[in-house]
């Protein structure tokens, strides 16, 4: 890898930015841009012909995952090398990053040898892939569907599936089947899509809608809730809120809805409203430790550590093995929260 490649570092922790810059300098990468903002990062990527981005996952205003997805949605940056960094990658975070097109992951604190090995393996330049046969056929199938030629559309998708199964193809087949009111068949296609991609939110959402058309509310709620949860994990708050409102219209007493609304409005910064939803959820499930934990986290956001500790202790009482609750209580007692 050429030493004059332009690398962008994105992190709202100044010490972490300096640490990574120093590390890159030590392995002969000198042309480095620093920013503490996702918005500024987007501007730099567009203006400075950046060759590689290294962005922390957790930031105050927007996550590094959101920046990755925005960049991957742009044709010009489809293959731009993009690394995410984090102190502790969970299994779901690794899956989300992979589905979003991440190039690689760096665990904090950084390992100079690990960073060097991954950066030196990057190609001399990144290229935008040419349109594939599969993409051309998929567009052809969509056009058939839009013109009302459903059987031709399904035939195109079946031809593609013979050459290799993908979640996207099954999703499109399910979507076309729903337009013909063939909901049982559509559900089978959506289920196949979610088997191939466990985090395919749109497939869960459309499956929920298909179940609703069949009058099977319990299954509809289950899969709509799953879609909402995935969208919240992906920071797509607007879509998640729409789905949750659809569930509310079906049944205001749905089991998980209040906790989900609490999570959503906490993400939006509507803390008082989020607290009301969590309290409602706790009334439905008075012994659920995760709801107690969520209320505790919310009180921390509201700068009320003492009240938060009460709920963390309640959660720990219900589940003595609740590791996260133990850690937060310890942090509060040490005065670090």
Which characteristics define this entry?
single chain, 337 residues, alpha/beta, Rossmann fold, Serine Threonine Protein Phosphatase 5, Tetratricopeptide repeat, 3 domains, five-stranded parallel sheet, 17 helices
Describe what this molecule looks like in 3D.
The chain is of the alpha/beta class and about 325 residues long. The protein has 3 domains: about 5-120, Response regulator (Rossmann fold, 3-Layer(aba) Sandwich), CATH 3.40.50; about 130-250, Tetratricopeptide repeat domain (Serine Threonine Protein Phosphatase 5, Tetratricopeptide repeat, Alpha Horseshoe); about 255-335, Tetratricopeptide repeat domain (Serine Threonine Protein Phosphatase 5, Tetratricopeptide repeat), CATH 1.25.40. It contains 17 helices and 5 strands. It has helices spanning about 15-25, 40-45, 65-70, 90-100, 110-120, 135-145, 150-160, 165-180, 185-195, 200-215, 215-235, 235-250, 255-270, 270-285, 290-300, 305-320, 325-335, and strands at about 5-10, 30-35, 50-55, 80-85, 105. Strands 2-1-3-4-5 form a 5-stranded parallel beta sheet, with helices on both faces. The longest helix is centred in the last third of the chain and has 17 residues, at about 215-235. The radius of gyration is 23 Å and the shape is flat.
Radius of gyration: 23 Å
Fourth CATH level, the homologous superfamily of the largest domain? Tetratricopeptide repeat domain
> What distance lies between the first and last C-alpha atoms, to the nearest angstrom?
43 Å
> From N to C, what is the helix and strand string?
EHEHEHEHEHHHHHHHHHHHHH
The level-1 CATH class of the largest domain: Mainly Alpha
| Largest sheet report | 5 strands, parallel
Q: What fold name stands as the CATH topology of the largest domain?
A: Serine Threonine Protein Phosphatase 5, Tetratricopeptide repeat
Structural class: alpha/beta
Tell me which CATH architecture of the largest domain applies here.
Answer: Alpha Horseshoe
In the sheet with the most strands, the strands line up as 2-1-3-4-5
Number of strands: 5
Helix fraction bin: 55-70%
Spatial shape: flat
